[in-house]
Structures are given as structure tokens and as C-alpha cells.
Amino acid sequence: MTSLSDALKLVDENRIIELSKQVIEIPSISGNEKEVMEHAVKLLEDMGIHVEVLGSEERPIIYACINPEAEKQIIFNGHLDVVPIAKPDAWTKDPWKPVVEEGMLYGRGSSDMKSSCATMIHLLEILKDMDLPLGVGVHLVPDEERGAQAGSKIVVDKIVAGELRRPDYVVIGEQSNLQVRVAERGMFGYQVKFYGRAAHTAASRVTGINAIAKASKGVLALEHHIDKFHEWIGHPMQSVNIIQAGTVSNQVPAECTITVDRRLIIGETADDVVAEVKADLDKAGEGDPDWKWEIIAPKNEDGSWQYTPANYTSPESELGQAFKKAVKTALGTEPELYVTWAGSTDGRLYRQAGMQTIGFGPIGGGAHGPDEFVYIDSLIKMAKVWVAVVHELAK
Ligand SMILES: [Zn+2]
Fold first, then answer.
1. For residue 340, how many other CB atoms are within 10 A of its CB?
2. Which of 204, 236, 376, 382 is the most interior residue, by most CB within 10 Å?
């Protein structure tokens, strides 16, 4: 097997930039990924790598693997769809004409996450002749930005059904600031309905009870930092994101409903959240004889709340340990866990199906916004860590 130091030397900055530009300049807003997928197939095939195309004709999914006979397999998952350009005027660059300036590569998808996908293709390119005792492959998918139903969901369903090889390890290349992402928050969406009493505005201080005023107290009671912490995933998050009330301008509203998005850390359940909300709202309504509210959320057949728990792969798992060693050997720094801003990625689907899955990606900015960019230096570091992870697992 090629030594790690020789393998690391093959990571080619110019090649990564070139491949990244090629995929960025093909617009691929979710639903229109066909052209970029076909280009990625061509890149891989030109390198002599066998490609299997899954998914539909309009929305292809790429599966490619080198050393397919090896006993174990590591898969790199990336999505080639991007979000639309919301405000073209806010861009100082052309989102579809990638440019390099001062160490940054600009363009829609540069950080989220076409450059990572391009680096995955480069990874197979440099590893393909090394005769590694490990299968190394990619799942390049569409539809991540719209929920993955036409992308990674299909891939994982096929794995679960035994129609596609189950990887032993999965790496997600979404931006993680070169930190190791071992967990993603779960989610519990709920509403709180606050009750008042309808009345004419003229009687608002006589018989009326304004549900909007009640909800206002409730919103302030729920909009706070939650003082819980898990070292793999950080704090829980809660945000009141929708408020609905009122019908006509001269009537005191009898009801007001707020919709809350609560993200859970490891160990939290929906019952924990409900108990927390009850404590917050009981406190907010102390001494108020007209304080009346209820929690509304979908329930399972057995009466329990529907929610998605946090998902994780232990840092002590084989893949977790490989990453810890790889960061040290490839970058010479201590590995850190990514806990600051952990939205969800397609990694959740692999974890939920029982596969060791870890996120490790570059540093960038402007994802989903204007002037999206990625630091080229971070792409190179990411590539080196990936090479070192493969090398570690191939031992
Ligand atoms: Zn993404």
C-alpha cells in the first residue's frame, strides 16, 4: 500500500479548483440536476472508474466505487443540487461563473457543497491505482436541499432493501469548518394555542380577553437560550417561527396559535420538551386567572408525541477514531467536534439506518445567501484528512 505521506502528496490543489469550477458552472437548482450529474459521470468514467447510475432519468444518482472486491467499504456522500439565487442584486459576482480571489473560490454551491463533491471525485482519482484493501466510493445525489426524497433517501432505502452495498463507513462532505461532526440534532415541531374571549373592541377591557396578548407573554417565555449541553452536539435550539390570530380589525381575538421549531440534543425526548414548555408557560402565567393554553402536535397511535431524536455516531467508533487520528497526522492539529451550528444533513439517513457516519467538510460562507464562497486552503486540508481516514481504515 502506498505510504500515507506519498498519498498526501497526490492531493492536487489546481485539480480540485478545476473540478470544482466545472461542477459549479453547471446550474443545478434542486429538480434540475441532470446536466451536472451527467458531467460528474463523465469525469469519473474518463478516469476509468466504473459508475452505476441509480434514481430516475431526470434526477440521476451516482454510485461509484474503487476496489469493489474489498471486504469493507467507505462511502463519501455529497449533493450536487443547490438552492436558487434569492436576490441576484445582492451578489457582487456571477453565481454561475466561479472565480478565485484571495484564496477563496466563489459561486453558488462552492461551499454547499459542489467543491466537496469535486474533491470526492479527485479522491477516487488519486486513490484508484493504490491497490487499497478497502472499497472507496461515492454517493453523489440530487435533492438534498429539498429533503432528500429523490436523493439520499433512495440510496439508503436501497441499502436497507439489500439492493445496494451497505457501506461500513460514511463520510458527509458538508461544510463543518474542518471539525468532526458526529451528531445532528433531532426535531420536535409543536404548536401552542392560547385562548382568550372574543368581544367588540369597545368592550376589550370589559368582557374581552385578548389571545394575542396572552400569546405574546408565551412567546417571550419560550424564546430563550436552553441551558442544556451535550459535548458532541452543543445546545438545544428553540424558535417561535409562525404566529396566527385575528380575523377582523374590530374584534378581540379569541385564539392565537404559535408554531415552534425545537431541535433536540442527544438524550432529549419530546416528553422532556413538553415538560419544559409547561414549566416556562406556567411561570409566565403566574397570577393570571385568564391564562389558558394547550400544546398541539402530531401523535403516534399509542398516544406518544411524534418527533425525531438526535442521531449520532460515537467519536469512539472505528470511523470516529480514524478521524481523530487523521486530523492529527494530516493537519498536525488536535481534532475538534463541530458543535456550534449543526443543522441536519443527509448523514441522518445513514445513521438512522445503522451506519457509522461522520461529517467532515471545508470552511466557507454565504451558503444559501449571496457571494457564497469556500476557502481553498480548507478544501485541501479536508482532502488530506479524507485521504488519511481512508489510509487509517485500510490498515
Ligand atoms: Zn448542503
1. 10
2. 382
Residue 303 makes CB contacts below 8 A (sequence gap 6+) with none
Kindly report the pTM of this predicted structure.
0.92
| 147 alpha carbon – ligand 1 mean position (Å) | 11
> What is the 368 CA–ligand 1 centroid distance (Å)?
9
Ligand 1 centroid distance, CA of 367 (Å): 8
As a whole number, the mean pLDDT across the chain is 96
Walk me through the domains of the chain, giving residue ranges and CATH numbers: 4-182+313-393 (3.40.630.10), 186-296 (3.30.70.360)
Find where cell 455529497 sits. 78
Question: What is the 307 CA–ligand 1 centroid distance (Å)?
Answer: 23
Instruction: Name the band, by pLDDT with cuts 50, 70 and 90, for residue 342.
Output: low
For ligand 1, a single-atom ion, which residues have Cβ within 5 Å?
A: 112-113, 174
CA 172–ligand 1 middle distance (angstroms): 10
Q: How far is the CA of 345 from the centre of ligand 1 (A)?
A: 7
Distance of CA 98 from the midpoint of ligand 1 (Å): 18
Q: Band the pLDDT of 131: cuts 50, 70, 90.
A: confident
Compute, in angstroms, the gap from residue 364 CA to the centroid of ligand 1.
12
Q: How far is the CA of 94 from the centre of ligand 1 (A)?
A: 20
Strand partners, 358: 171
> Distance, CA 79 to ligand 1 centroid (Å)?
7
pLDDT tens-place string over residues 345-369: 999 999 999 999 999 999 999 999 9
Sheet holding 255-264, edge to edge: 237-245, 255-264, 186-195, 293-296
**pLDDT confidence bin for 343, thresholds 50/70/90:** confident
Mean pLDDT of the 129-155 span? 96
Cell numbers at 114, concatenated: 459542489
pLDDT in tens, 53-67: 999 999 999 999 999
CA of 372: how far to CAs of 25, 155, 360, in Å?
13, 28, 19
